[in-house]
Amino acid sequence: MHNRTPTMPASPYSPPSGLSRASAGMAGVWQAFRRAAVSQCHPTMLFAVLLPFLIALVGAILLLWFCWTPLTGWLRDEASNWSVVNNVDEWLVTVGLFSLKVYLVPVIAAAILLPVSGILGLAIAAVFVMPLVLRHVSQREYGVVARQGRYATAVSVWNALWVSLAFALGWLLTLPLWLVPPMAVLLSVFWWAFAFSRMMRIDAIVEHASPEERKILLRRNNPGFWTIGLVCSLINLLPPAWVVLPVFSALVFAHYGLDALQRLRQEKVIEMAPH
What does the alpha-carbon distance between residue 75 and residue 130 come to, in Å, rounded to a whole number? Predict the structure, then answer.
């Protein structure tokens, strides 16, 4: 009988080297986009596109119907007090070009109302469509990843609410900076990257990851989640993409999050194995 001094297994969540983790994270991002493109072509996911798109469309119509006139009227009154706008408008009219206020007020109103309908569609996708996405991808590609999440619906709804409010508030507060080129594009990309990454990353893992696993995944894969959000935000600059982007982004985050969770649990099994 051999005497052997037992060795304590390493912590199940002790981090691997930063370099290998970063490399795996960036590779996982592009792998998630490839897998999402394939998943998006499935009839179930094509049908799922309709829900957030129709809700965002109805939301946009209602916002324009009820808010366009009072909002443009308020903006026109406010614009009359902006000396810079008045001076530029007067010069343009004097040289026989056009009135700046005629075009500026509708553009600002659209820049306020359309993102509201967009974030509504994204929130609907996060809360209601993401469970459909998770069922679809988990049954086909992540069957070994057990569901260990708790209070998934409550966490998802709360996350969608605070991200939507933060997005709307940040968008409105930084809207005056749009007058400084090229801040209009940069701020739009930043705020949509914030919305995609902060909203979808939680919903992608909340049903499967335990609270402890969720904290580790969010900390470990934060650059990957932000990269996906940035890419989705850049795609969002193309209006035709608005139809499929809520569901497609959910698929990308689901693939990336579930794959990261699967890797985390594999590390746990390996590190707990006796030496």
Answer: 37
Closest CA to 59 of 115, 131, 99: 115
Where do runs of H (alpha helix) occur along the chain? 18-40, 43-48, 50-79, 83-94, 100-124, 130-141, 152-174, 183-205, 211-220, 222-235, 245-272
Other Cβ atoms less than 10 A from the Cβ of 136: the count is 17
Pick the closest to residue 124 from 172, 74, 55 (CA basis): 55
**Could you give the maximum distance between any two Cα atoms of the chain, in Å?**
102
pTM value surpassing 0.85: no
- What lies within 8 Å, CB to CB, of 186 at 6+ separation is none
* Lookup result for tokens 């993401």: 130
Query: Residue with structure tokens 């929130």?
Result: 123
Return per-residue pLDDT of the chain as tens, 275 residues.
Answer: 444 434 333 334 444 444 445 445 678 899 999 999 999 999 999 988 888 888 878 888 888 888 888 888 888 777 667 666 667 667 766 666 766 666 777 888 888 888 888 898 889 888 888 999 999 999 889 989 999 988 899 999 999 999 999 999 999 999 888 878 899 899 999 999 999 999 999 999 999 999 999 999 999 999 999 999 999 999 999 988 988 999 999 999 999 999 999 999 998 666 555 55
Give Cα separations from 82 to 86, 88, 161, 183, 186 (angstroms): 6, 10, 34, 20, 24
